[in-house]
Write a sequence for this structure.
């Protein structure tokens, strides 16, 4: 048929044949859906995150993951609201990590596209959106719970309680490598780096690991990390902590650590695109690198309690479509959608207030890594963060592997005061944020 | 009379404009209006021949000053906006002492360094500047009712009218300034600074004046931005934003008053409305960059040269160019 088009022999008969084939395929596709979808029942979900620019790595992979999630859910009949299947459609707006553009995007998604829920990365962009959320009552989610405060009633942090889960990596390290007793740390001096610094300081103190120097805060515009690493290594540490650095920093810092002959332990919040780091250093150098975000082909994710549907299949599909792009956020926005879907189906409504009540009403929720509590009043002034277990991941023979799940609430029960002390020292408690 | 009619028609069109736009386009219109003031003030600075890389940071000085004055001292927002502009002008005056010891490329680099120092101070001092996270929950303009129209400043249409009024007044002042003897002196310094100096013109004084006045207007644009979005942080005024201002000025052209404004309008509509509406959300930087390259290749004198050519075509009698048309001007040049 296509050959006919290119050879100019595309006539009325071949057109009718082609049309009939396409119609047949479409009908077949519809009939294979598990639940009949009403043609006009579509729920629109907003995706308001950086898709271009320096922070795009924490937005775009999330949108790619959401598209896969939507295809899977729609193929299985969509979201059932009052017994009727609703298709899910994502409407994206690139906020370029700019609060003004985030405000414009929120306005467009709510007032023009009619979305029922908006997912954001948060951080610098949330304050631009906050007045819009106040006025409209729209339900928003953030990956950065430091956006939460008692005034943010319609903002939830259901996927990750950054940076509190970082305590689990340090706790695991202290249990499994008790010989490591000294550490140094560096981080970019920004809204993402500072609360993470406070968290790692609390975790190291709780684990009895001595900080050899004050955390080295570098400017986010830094591109040459040789002096940063030289200063870190001048203290001869057993552990180098990379805090929550963006991947644009993690990669050159690791490369510098390798080039400057560091042989000790590295711990980091993320290790996005770690295969590239291995390529720039060596498999041996990266062995034992600790971080917090697993690959979803990990067998440990098939175990009891994990609430992400078919994580291995999701990972395989993601890598097929976007090879080499799997990162920390690839699954997180999709896991938020799992939670939202369950709440909407429970509420029998997609309206923001009904979904929020259904989601948080019982005080518990099904987080991707197990049942968790709606928590956070101590640190964020509001219980809108979903906290439970979190995995500790290590690179073994060139591949990320989950070493175990640790409980964040258990750690906080024992060392919460330490965390509050360090958060307060860095002006990161909710009542200190200007 | 013809001019008055034209002004009234343009004013009516600008007042009616937001009502023909979607909600998100109204939001873009607010930011566009504020950016027009920024880029026009940048052109005022360039009149004396100096190009700065710190203009967006100076805008930030106005934004921070206005936000802090209203937030910490409880000043009435319009007053804090004016004081924000004045603070930016004052900071520019202080910076002028080291900066105007340099010229040309050195001034460009010096202005960038000065701007970075200011940005680092915002990051370093969490009190009062909020550190890397900046300031949020900045007071908005207080709503009021005129009887025939209620100003609710959360709504983009209301804020657009307010910003339009402020920007129109500022543009008028800049336009008058450029056509005054002071403005002519700015031009003279740009093209013949040695000759101007020989004629008794205080070159450094006039360069400082242009820098300070332009900074005051940039500070006011920053204040307008801060009180609309309610949050500012050091990244809002980084070199990436400065590149946008330079691009607007270069693509629009800086030979005329309207050149940079035209550049700002065309590129904003292209980037924020057309490319997004066409579904090129993630490809925008590539397409935007391509269009920039093409415009520099094929319109080296900026969009304003296109307008000049079109205007000349309208003015000219078929087959016989009139005196004062562009080709005639070029021939005389």
């Amino acid at each position: 048929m296509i050959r006919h088009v290119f050879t100019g022999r595309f006539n009325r008969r071949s057109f009718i044949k082609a049309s009939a084939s396409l119609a047949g395929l479409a009908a077949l596709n519809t009939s294979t859906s598990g639940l009949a979808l009403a043609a006009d029942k579509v729920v629109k979900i907003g995706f308001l995150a950086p898709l271009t620019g320096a922070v795009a790595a924490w937005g775009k992979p999330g949108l790619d993951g959401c598209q896969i999630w939507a295809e899977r859910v729609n193929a299985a009949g969509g979201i059932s609201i009052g017994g009727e299947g609703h298709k899910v459609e994502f409407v994206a707006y690139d906020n370029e990590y700019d609060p003004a553009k985030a405000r414009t995007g929120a306005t467009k998604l709510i007032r023009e596209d009619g979305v029922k829920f908006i997912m954001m990365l948060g951080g610098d962009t949330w304050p631009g959106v906050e007045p819009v959320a106040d006025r409209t009552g729209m339900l928003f989610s953030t990956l950065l719970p430091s956006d939460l405060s008692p005034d943010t009633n319609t903002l939830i942090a259901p996927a990750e309680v950054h940076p509190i889960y970082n305590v689990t990596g340090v706790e695991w390290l202290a249990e499994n490598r008790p010989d490591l007793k000294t550490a140094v740390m560096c981080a970019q001096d920004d809204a993402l780096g500072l609360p993470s610094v406070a968290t790692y300081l609390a975790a190291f103190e709780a684990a009895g690991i001595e900080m050899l120097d004050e955390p080295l805060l570098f400017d986010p515009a830094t591109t040459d990390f040789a002096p940063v690493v030289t200063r870190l290594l001048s203290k001869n540490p057993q552990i180098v902590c990379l805090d929550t650095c963006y991947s644009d920093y993690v990669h050159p810092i690791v490369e510098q650590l390798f080039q400057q002959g560091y042989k000790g332990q590295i711990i980091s919040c993320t290790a996005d695109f770690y295969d590239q780091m291995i390529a720039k250093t060596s498999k041996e150098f990266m062995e034992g690198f600790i971080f917090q975000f697993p690959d979803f082909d990990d067998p440990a994710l098939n175990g009891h309690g994990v609430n992400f549907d078919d994580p291995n299949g999701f990972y395989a599909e993601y890598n097929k479509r976007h090879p080499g792009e799997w990162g920390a956020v690839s699954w997180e926005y999709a896991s938020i959608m799992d939670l939202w879907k369950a709440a909407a189906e429970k509420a029998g409504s997609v309206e923001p207030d009904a979904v929020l009540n259904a989601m948080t009403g019982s005080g518990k929720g099904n987080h991707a890594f197990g049942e968790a509590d709606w928590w956070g009043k101590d640190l964020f002034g509001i219980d809108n963060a979903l906290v439970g277990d979190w995995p500790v991941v290590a690179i073994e023979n060139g591949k990320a592997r989950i070493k175990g799940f640790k409980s964040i609430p258990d750690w906080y029960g024992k060392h919460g005061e330490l965390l509050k002390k360090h958060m307060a020292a860095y002006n990161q408690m909710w009542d200190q944020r200007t | 009379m013809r001019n008055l009619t034209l002004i009234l028609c343009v004013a009516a069109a600008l007042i009616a404009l937001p009502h023909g736009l979607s909600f998100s386009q109204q939001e873009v219109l607010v930011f566009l209006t504020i950016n027009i003031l920024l880029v026009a003030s940048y052109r005022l600075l360039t009149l004396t021949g100096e190009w700065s890389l710190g203009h967006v940071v100076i805008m930030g000085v106005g934004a921070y000053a206005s936000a802090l004055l209203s937030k910490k001292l409880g000043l009435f927002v319009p007053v804090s906006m004016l004081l924000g502009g004045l603070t930016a002008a004052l900071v520019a005056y202080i910076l002028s002492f080291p900066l105007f010891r340099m010229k040309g490329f050195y001034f460009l680099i010096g202005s960038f360094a000065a701007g970075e120092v200011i940005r680092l101070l915002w990051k370093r001092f969490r009190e009062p500047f909020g550190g890397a996270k900046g300031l949020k929950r900045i007071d908005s303009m207080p709503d009021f009712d005129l009887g025939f129209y209620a100003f609710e400043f959360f709504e983009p249409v209301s804020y657009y009218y307010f910003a339009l009024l402020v920007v129109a007044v500022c543009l008028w002042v800049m336009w008058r300034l450029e056509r005054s003897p002071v403005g002519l002196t700015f031009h003279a310094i740009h093209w013949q600074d040695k000759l101007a100096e020989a004629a008794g013109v205080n070159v450094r004084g006039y360069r400082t004046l242009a820098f300070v006045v332009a900074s005051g207007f940039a500070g006011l644009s920053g204040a307008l931005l801060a009180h609309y979005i309610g949050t500012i942080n050091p990244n809002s005024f980084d070199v990436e934003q400065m590149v946008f201002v330079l691009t607007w000025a270069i693509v629009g052209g800086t030979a005329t008053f309207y050149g940079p404004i035209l550049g700002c309008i065309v590129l904003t509509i292209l980037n924020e409305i057309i490319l997004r509406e066409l579904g090129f959300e993630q490809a925008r930087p590539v397409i935007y960059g391509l269009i920039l390259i093409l415009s520099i290749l094929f319109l080296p004198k900026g969009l304003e040269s296109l307008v000049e050519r079109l205007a000349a075509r309208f003015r000219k009698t078929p087959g016989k160019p009139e005196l004062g048309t562009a080709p005639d001007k070029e021939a005389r040049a």
Q: What stands out?
A: DSSP finds 16 helices and 17 strands in chain A. The two ends of chain A are 65 Å apart (CA to CA).
